[in-house]
Structure formats: C-alpha cells, structure tokens
C-alpha cells in the first residue's frame, strides 16, 4: 500500500513493521506527535527502518498493547496485525477525521478505509438501509455508525475494534469521549492560546509545502498567522469566490491578509458550469452521499493546491462548532435554560432524544430540542404529529422554508412499500444520552461535533481533498484543544459571552484588528442557481432512476423533483438531495455489481 507521502517522502510504503515483523500496520492519516513518540521509543531500545510517522505505531503496540492508540495525536484510521497472537486491531482517531468502514457476518469481517474499496471486495452486497435513506433526506447526510448500505457501518470515532481468530471473537470499545475531558481551571484565553501554539508547532509539521484555505474569516486567518510564524516562506494561501455573488465573496479580504502575512495568494473563481461538470465525480469521491453545496469549493481549492505543488492544506473547520460561532447554537442554549427554569432542571426538561440537524445547503441550520410541555404546536404536518409523542413535541430555532418543506413533504416522496419498511422511530431520534451530563454546554458541543461537523464538514473535506492527493488538516479539531475547551466549560460558562469570546481573547495579538473586528459572513455559494443548473443537466437521472426502481421514491414525486422549483416550489433542497443519492446509487451499485461478478469468476476459476 502506498499512501500520500507528507513525512519521509522516499520510504513510506506500507505495511510497516516492528523489528521482527511480527506486528504489521497499514494506516491512513497522519500522526502529528511522531517525532516525540519516536524519541521516546528509541530511548526504550526500539529500532526504526524509516522516518515515517506510521512506523511508530507497531512499536507503541509492542510497549502498550491496545492502549497504543491513546498515545497518538493526529488523524488516523489504523489496521494492525499481530501475527503471534493472530489478532487484528482496528482504530479510528478521536474526532473521526479519517473513516474506517466495516462489514461482517458470523465468521468474516471486511474492513476498508473507503466505502468503494469495501465494495471492490465483491463480497459486500449493495442493499440500501431504509432508515439511513430516510435520515439522509432529512439531514443531507447519514450519521455514523450507519452508512447508506445495510450491513455496512463505520467504526465510530474514538473507538478500537479487535478480532481474535482462535477462537473467533470481535470486541469493540470506546477509548475516548469528549465529555470525559478532565475539569480544568485557569484563565481560559491563556490556556487556549498555549494549546494553539502547540498545534501550530506539531499539527502543521511536514516535509512539503503547506497551504491554507483562507476565507477571510477569523478561524482560517488565525491559523494562517500562526503557521507563518512557525514556517515562514513555506505557506501558500488559497481562496474561492463566485462572480455572481459579490456581497459574499471574501477573496478581497483573504488577499489582504495574505499580503499582510507575505504569503503567495491563489484565487479560484467558480461558475455554475464548473459545478455541473464535476458533480458526478464529487458525489463519487465523497464516498458517502453528502448533499452540501460547499463540496465543490473543497474540490476546487484542493485541485488548485495540487496544481501549485502544495500537498497539505489547512482549513479552519471546527472553530464555529467549538467556540459558539453559530448564533443558532447559542439560541438553543438559551431555549434550554428557559426550559430548565420551567421544569426544575435542564436534564429533566429534555427527554432522551436530543436532536440536531443541518437541514439545508449552505449555512442554513436548525437545532431541535424536545420539550415535555403540552400544547406546543408550530404548524407541523399530521405525519410529524403522528410520529412524536406529546412529550417529544419539538421547538425549533431558525426555521427555514427549506426545512419546513423537508419535514412536511419528505414522507410524500416515498413509495408506500418503502414507507412501510421504516421503523417506528423518528428520523431525528439519533441520540440517547445518559443523565445528568456535566453541563449543557458540553452536551451541545458533543452533539454538533458528531453530527454536522463530522458527517458534513470533516467527511466532505477529507475525501474531496484526498481525491486530488492533498491532505486536509483541521487544527481546530485537534483533540487536545477540544479537551481544553470542554474542561474549561465544566468550570466556567462562555455561552452568555459574545461569540467566540475565549478564542478572540486568546488570539488578539496574532491577527490585525481589521480582521478581528470584521463581521461574520458565513459561506454562501449560489445554491439556487447551482441546483437549477444541476437539474437542467442531470435531472433526467431521477425519472425512472434507481430510487424509483428500488421502490424508494414514487415515480410522480421523482418526476417533480427532477424539475426542481418550477414543479416542486420550495423543495429545492429535496431535489438536490435526491439527485445526490440517485447519482451515488448508480455509481456504487455498478461498482458492487462489477466487483461481485469478478469475484464469482475468480472463485469459478479456482474450482475448475
């Protein structure tokens, strides 16, 4: 196996071994603290054959057993084979930056770092999971451990799985949870700044040029300024814009900061024709169906970085989720505190199901909280009322027309047989949490991190950058920074402070005041224009397509979706989701079918 080489460019073939080759490792990702680990292991007598960051893993396993993963700081999906014990160990990083897919039956387990690779085994049937499909139409993504395929799942973030061959046994455990971060006391901005300095030292470490996706916003601006201090002359800035949306085009702001930091600046202008041309490839490279219009921006910036010879790209994803940058998250906290006053305690007011969703493309979002209060109605359809008990009726902040349409109309899309195949749970019933939680702030941070941040932002960015052989790094989701913020929130509350108060104070001397004082714009691609262009070019796929053939969509509903807003009025988001899922099904069903045919032919050849 050959991975994208960022460290030790000449000798990074995999698998990599310990000294006697009894432990072998393949991995996807990057171990940021490999230098420190290597020095420690050398001091213990271990010997290395390469300078690869991944070679530290088999030696850590020799020393610490399954606990080796707790010593790693980075983004990774790991497969380790212990030949002496006839034992397989699979592990995934704490925040889920790198995926690991699994399929198993009674005596077999197949794993892969990509869904398409799993299907290439020829052993995994293409069979859609109805609950996952329903989830996708409501959320625009599928939340782990589910995938769109029945029987295929993801190893959850922060988990480790072991397979022993004799006797056959499979064991899975969680080795890290955000909410377990130790309580932390001290000055929040000072502690956050110290962690940011460490991040800029080790997370950006590489033997190649490094770029940054610079939006002009606070998060990417801070990362650029910190990186330039540590690695002067090695940083490049990349920014994307849309000629048709000058009010939301941040290229001017991004270039001003790049010039201030003396960074080479590369800008990419995106047109609707670019998006429609690349759409099938974008869906394929995402591996999971993800219906977010920002996908093309990741794709375009990554391609530009590769063309400029920059194989590592930093991005500010995670800052808004971790530091309360989204106003709808702060409003959700205020709503829950009002419920606390009404019900005595906040965890008594919130039933087991506490739900998040990202219902529409772009920056439109909603958070829903269940109330044990009678009489709260907000115009929900009979479908929604029938599926929720009175105790679970919902109050929403920041309702949008797209979300109302999704909630009230999605059931009308489904063919009767598919509707019957769904279980009794609501598509929003994703999480059940133990009570009491350390704090409401911790609960909200975890929810948004394991839904929208992970399944939409992290997944999309990682896979579309890797499609161009570019490694995307997200310093603001480094687990040590997350633990620092969570530990502080167990001691102090920042939810009533101005947005990103701790973060802003921590980096006040890092960036110019004109960046710090700039209002938040948010990422706003031309969603309506792009969707119309996509439907004009690819909309016919929905008519009598796979989703109709598999009995998921009613033919007349698929026809209306294919025509977009002209026939579907406010259902633009649903049209886009249907087109993404249809395109994904066509590509991945074909891949699974061809691979199964090859596997059958191979087996037949062996038996002849």
Automatic annotation (TrEMBL):
One of its GO terms (cellular component) is cytosol. Pathway: Amino-acid biosynthesis; L-asparagine biosynthesis; L-asparagine from L-aspartate (L-Gln route): step 1/1. One of its GO terms (molecular function) is ATP binding. It is an enzyme of class 6 (ligase). GO terms for biological process: asparagine biosynthetic process. The keyword ATP-binding applies. Keywords: ATP-binding, Glutamine amidotransferase, Ligase, Nucleotide-binding. Coiled coil: none annotated. InterPro entries: Asn_synth_AEB (IPR006426), Asn_synthase (IPR001962), ASN_synthetase/amidase (IPR051786), AsnB_N (IPR033738), GATase_2_dom (IPR017932), Ntn_hydrolases_N (IPR029055), Rossmann-like_a/b/a_fold (IPR014729). It comes from the Bacteria. Residues 1-166 form the Glutamine amidotransferase type-2 domain. ATP binds at residue 240. L-glutamine binds at residue 53. It catalyses: L-aspartate + L-glutamine + ATP + H2O = L-asparagine + L-glutamate + AMP + diphosphate + H(+). The keyword Transmembrane does not apply. Its EC number is 6.3.5.4. PANTHER family: ASPARAGINE SYNTHETASE (PTHR43284:SF1), ASPARAGINE SYNTHETASE (GLUTAMINE-HYDROLYZING) (PTHR43284). NCBIfam families: asn_synth_AEB. Belongs to the asparagine synthetase family. This is asparagine synthase (glutamine-hydrolyzing). The lineage of its organism: Bacteria, Candidatus Eiseniibacteriota.
